[in-house]
Amino acid sequence: MKKTLIALIAFACAICTNAKPPKWLKNARKAQVTVIAFDKEGTPKESQGAFIDEEGTVLTEYDILKGAVKATVIDFNGIEHPVHRIKGANSMYNVAKLSVTKNKTKAGYLTTDTTIVSKGKLLYVLPTAKADKSVPCTPDTIVKEELFKDSFHYYTLAKAHNERLANCPVLNEAGKLVGLLQMSVKEGGQSFVMDASYVAQLAINPLDATNADLKAIQIPKALPSNAQDAATFIFLSGPKDSNDYKQYIEDFLSAYPDSLQGYVLKAEMLAGQKEYDKAEQSYKQALELNNANKDEVHYSWAKTLYTLNLDPSYKVHGEWTMEQALAQAQAASAAKDMPIYKKVQADCLYALKRYAEAKEIYVALTKTNLRNPDLFLYAAQCQQMEDGSNLNAIITLQDSALNCYSKPYPAEAAPILLMRGNNYAKAGKPRQAIADLIIYEGLYSGILTAEFYYQREQLAMQCRMYPTALNDIDKAIRLNPAEPIFRAELAAICYRLNMIDDAIGAAQAAINLDNKFADAYRILGVCHDKKGNKQEARKNLQKAVELGDSISKELLNNIK
Length: 560
Fold this sequence. Notes:
This protein is of the alpha+beta class and 560 residues long. The protein has 23 helices and twelve strands. It is 50% helix and 13% strand. A hairpin with a 5-residue loop joins strand 2 and strand 3 (57-60).
């Protein structure tokens, strides 16, 4: 009886451990790999993975790659393969896809099966990549199947597996890859299988240049699968002086040797590194290609030269001048008539102080799809530089800039209102100036200065808008109570409004701040004269005369 029981237990163990391994096990294990990732301190993290094609694509877990600056894959034969590129990653599902620089070896790969594995079906968990070759795989069955992202599957297994098997390949009865083993967050809980089809389809898209999961892995990423998407990814990928950016450029040129974009991106990068000769060579290589879009090369070159020559620290290199920037912009327009190319021409002409020509182009561009308030303002600035005395012409262009907005004006119209208001003031149109400055005050989101309110007060005085002037000078004083001019201005307004006592108080406050302020003494003297205080009037006017105020001398002579 005892022997029979032992035999039954042995038989059961043989079944549970799959004593007779599947025929495909030996070949399947050749696809297994160990993935080791290193952070910037050189600290390693280790996990499992598997080759899924003969090109060296590996599926593994995300967590070990997070923060990694380099990684390596060790295949079934113990041969190391440096991780070449990250091809996709998702931290939520803890999966990643990468490619390796595959050394000469006959490492195998697993074929991914997209067929749904139904409940109750048998699956096999491969041993760890480092396990002895005689260790059998572990059978298990599916107890639950869930759908995610519409077409992928997440399976719940019957058993709880050892943590050492985390991320090991899980195969079906045909030896095809179903997914990667994932552990339960609850100790001793059932294990799960993440659909390998989901991991296999991970790919880099243009907007992944800012993807947080991918940015957390400091290993270069694979470029998107077409030239335009790849160029967009590079453009968005970050600093042009980073090693990754340089590598992306080389990858692009290797994948698309006949594309202008690669040479243009390389030229822009080299120019940013002050490698001007190499940048010029790259631009010329692009122009030598049999490509119809050479206008794009000239445009990029023009922008690069323009930006460089605007930088005060730039020391002109050879023919990399503003004149050359203009020539490249003109070449771009000659190749293809595009408003954006004309805009660069106008910018270059303005920088070269050829204001009339620049203005003509800016005005012409307002009749194209580039029409915006800035074009009118650029034209107004050209007019200002060419003939600043023609205020009506400048104001007309600023009117056109404001007409690009509908009323009530948005906040971005505020600077234009301030400029036009100042020009109205210069043109002797104080009421129009005040109207603009009032709207500007309502749109401005910060705290306006005391000088702003003082300027508007002066305009209000010209229009005899005394209550407005009084309100503005009061705001100026509150913003800068230590400025004697503002107190004296308050005294002058109060005098005009026959608020003599208030005027005397304000004038005295100005003198308290500056006892050599002649204007304040004059106002104080006039106020006392108004009240009939002749002695005080003479004393203060005399003080003003002593401080060099000629007006006070005449007033003093008129006091009887």
